[in-house]
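Closing statement on the MU-OXO-diiron sub-project.
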Amino acid sequence: MITEKVRHAMNEQITHELESFYVYLSMAAYFHAQNLDGMAHWMRCQAHEEMIHAMKFYDHILDRGGRVTLADIKQIKTTWEKPLEPWQDAYEHEKFITGKIIDLAKICRAENDYTSEPLLAWFLNEQIEEEKNTDKVCRDLATVENSKEGILMLDRELAARVFTAGSPLDPAAYNLVA
Ligand code: FEO
């Protein structure tokens, strides 16, 4: 059985992950409007991944006999001045999410909730990747920022992202994601 404090904190984390889904989907829409479909594709894959993150917490709460309660998602940014800015925002957002996962790990430890540790270890590792990936694109884009050709080359590179999981609402899909 999950304690009330852990259940509450995990419900909040579901909202953060769904906000992440919404943030990346908004960035995808911006990149489509800029005719940078490779970056849009990357963002759409990322949005999909964020929904999976939300569902991991969702099912963890259910599996431990808790009640899932969803909260409002705040209005997010819908436009940016230049292609680098969404990537910078994405990097900052991932650092924020890392902080939230660490807060969650602290709450679980204070509650002697060892059962949540494998899930949180997965998320802590995942956040290393999330920060690394968005920071890398920021640095690459900063290098070519004044070159249309450079931006298009990077756009093509990001179009190659492969994401094989099926529907994020289907546990058979998201349990396959490492
Ligand atoms: Fe679910 Fe991008 O952190």
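The pocket of MU-OXO-diiron is lined by residues 17, 20, 50, 53, 94, 97, 130 (CB under 6 Å). With this model delivered, the sub-project is considered complete and its resources will be redirected to Aim 3.
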